Amino acid sequence: MEFHTTYSDNNYTIYVDNGILNETLQKYTSQYNQVFYIIDSHVYDLHEEKFTNFDTVIKVPRGESFKTIENTIAVIDELLDQNIKRNDLVVVIGGGATGDGGAFVSSITLRGVDYIHVPTTLLAHDSAIGGKTAINRPHGKNLVGTFYRPNAVIYDLDFFETLPEEEVLSGFGEVIKHAMLAGKESINRLVDETKDGLDITRLNEFILYGIKTKMYYVSVDEKEDNLRKFLNLGHTLGHALEYSFKLKHGHAVVLGIIGSLYISNKMYNDIFDLESLISYLKKIGYDLSPLKEMNTTEMIHYMSSDKKNMRKSFIGYIILREYGHPELIEISTSDLEALLNEMKAII
Amino acid sequence: MEFHTTYSDNNYTIYVDNGILNETLQKYTSQYNQVFYIIDSHVYDLHEEKFTNFDTVIKVPRGESFKTIENTIAVIDELLDQNIKRNDLVVVIGGGATGDGGAFVSSITLRGVDYIHVPTTLLAHDSAIGGKTAINRPHGKNLVGTFYRPNAVIYDLDFFETLPEEEVLSGFGEVIKHAMLAGKESINRLVDETKDGLDITRLNEFILYGIKTKMYYVSVDEKEDNLRKFLNLGHTLGHALEYSFKLKHGHAVVLGIIGSLYISNKMYNDIFDLESLISYLKKIGYDLSPLKEMNTTEMIHYMSSDKKNMRKSFIGYIILREYGHPELIEISTSDLEALLNEMKAII
Ligand SMILES: NC(=O)c1ccc[n+]([C@@H]2O[C@H](COP(=O)([O-])OP(=O)(O)OC[C@H]3O[C@@H](n4cnc5c(N)ncnc54)[C@H](O)[C@@H]3O)[C@@H](O)[C@H]2O)c1
Ligand SMILES: NC(=O)c1ccc[n+]([C@@H]2O[C@H](COP(=O)([O-])OP(=O)(O)OC[C@H]3O[C@@H](n4cnc5c(N)ncnc54)[C@H](O)[C@@H]3O)[C@@H](O)[C@H]2O)c1
């Protein structure tokens, strides 16, 4: 399957399928003098046989540990050592973290060289669209970066074979979020098709749905001045839980979404059947216990420093008026804490 | 005087005049919550009285020494320490080097914050247009950077009062280049108005001309795929001389231009009156002796690694068919060396 982005310019194609890596890559690499491959070292070890005909491979620390200034500069220096030119190509192979860091490298080396992302996790469907690149600083995640679009995204689902279940569930968290933002029909189909468990070989369609939904928000607001903020559904409480319980990102987002829908139900007369949703989530494998165990005072403390906040003692929180209709509300820290405590009862 | 850029979008205004800093700045700063000032430490010491009402000042190593990854990251960390937000403003005060580094910082902090450049050298008129940001690596100059436009350029010529003569001459080198690229009329007027010496208080007009000429080339080819390359007139031999004799950049460019016109004369029947040009340049203060003393074999060696080269043993060289009509030629290294040796006689 192919999806074409719908920006006003600099569009690119996202290929989603099994076993497409080498054939699709070749369409692009044949147009360049030199091609450099930046590969997550763990992915390299697991899938070495896929990379045998690659010339210049730069293995990088796995996952999030790559996203430091030191590591990205080391890669840039390696590219410069190898005499990279403005019209060469960089191919970045790995999850969202490798993608973020590799795209950042591509965007600042020689003021920007072409790059292709080959996502190897389910979560990375999220970063396939949006053009955000990033590395971390001691002050926090993703604080340094650029907006820079890839020349293509080649999503070869064969990589999923080695993905641990917790990574699948984490990625699926963002898939759920995107389906809820897309609307009732999307989320209902998603739940229906996966209610007996996640079959990693049958997620192509939902990956594409997720990409399409994200494309919609990003195309109306690339620089996150307004609507794009809705993509943070589940992220306010999610980030606090992620940090406090050291959860995988998408897992935390799922927990955060429950928090959002709980508030929606309070505001809009129980429009969501939270009970069914919760039992579905448990069934497919999510551990919801952090929502029961969280220290709400501590959560409020984290959420108070969120970028979306506009007033002191109030927290900017994204809820759903209904599926497909996100809203940004401001809720006082005391009201929020009371609601979160109340919610513990239904987990 | 004000000049408005003519890109297809994201345009900005360049203000050029004496004593305009604080008043013009205020028009912008009043729109922001927080404003951070990145200032060349040498400029800070010389002009401290101009900066008394600035809140958050970050002094940075003077000139080119700022353009390292370590220094730029230190500034980013300082901005993050001070809790910079996406909608805050950075004001960068200094020459082209401070501008390059400060703009780079602005372009990658929180994926890009607004910034204003306040150039304090004549040479920086060149970087007021073009949106190139850069830092250096051990491999070479300007190898890491972004394309990122300022929100305004405020050129307060009062800063020139403390500019050493060699910096004035260096900046004027690029002014001459821009006038030659603009056409016969421009360069003739420039020579005519300055033939009795450079009066730093009367250069506003030529700064604006230079900016306009650069704007033309940049607007037709922002990413330097073709026409923008002509802005490198004088830079091929210039860079070699700059490196070998440790010259100021614009001084080296002037010497490089003489080399270009010498080749033009060989190809196109002495269309340029080089003798007059040389005596004019000497009169206003340029030391042309490196052109006599250079080791041409060494120069060829440097030029062979130039980015513009397309064929082995040939050097891509920009000459002028006439003023206003640059051409990119390929010249064999042996022919070029012979010509450069021959040229020594006329210096
Ligand atoms: N740019 C964006 O718009 C955007 C959007 C969402 C997330 N992100 C970023 O993405 C990152 C999270 O994404 P992620 O979970 O994909 O990150 P990741 O790259 O850290 O991958 C998670 C882990 O899975 C391993 N892994 C990757 N592919 C594998 C495979 N096929 N088999 C086995 N193991 C594999 C990695 O080595 C790593 O340990 C975060 O850094 C986040 O900031 C960016
Ligand atoms: N981005 C672009 O398009 C572009 C274009 C041309 C040049 N540049 C860059 O600009 C730099 C060269 O420009 P520059 O010569 O302005 O560099 P600079 O910033 O290094 O300034 C030169 C010296 O003058 C000092 N100085 C600055 N203002 C002064 C003042 N008012 N009084 C006294 N001293 C002062 C500085 O401390 C420094 O020592 C290079 O790094 C080059 O790469 C960039």
TrEMBL record, chains A, B:
Listed cofactors: Co(2+); NAD(+)
Gene3D superfamilies registered for this protein in UniProt: 3.40.50.1970, Dehydroquinate synthase-like - alpha domain
Record InterPro entries: Dehydroquinate_synthase, DHQ_synth_fam, DHQS/DOIS_N, DHQS_C
One Gene Ontology molecular-function label: metal ion binding
GO biological process, one term: aromatic amino acid family biosynthetic process
SUPFAM superfamilies associated with the record: Dehydroquinate synthase-like
Entry keyword set: Amino-acid biosynthesis, Aromatic amino acid biosynthesis, Cobalt, Lyase, Metal-binding, NAD
Pfam families xref list: DHQ_synthase, DHQS_C
Coiled coil: none
Residue span(s) of domain 3-dehydroquinate synthase C-terminal: 171-309
Annotated ranges, domain 3-dehydroquinate synthase N-terminal: 58-168
Signal peptide: none
Protein known as: 3-dehydroquinate synthase
Organism: Phocicoccus schoeneichii
Gene behind this protein: aroB
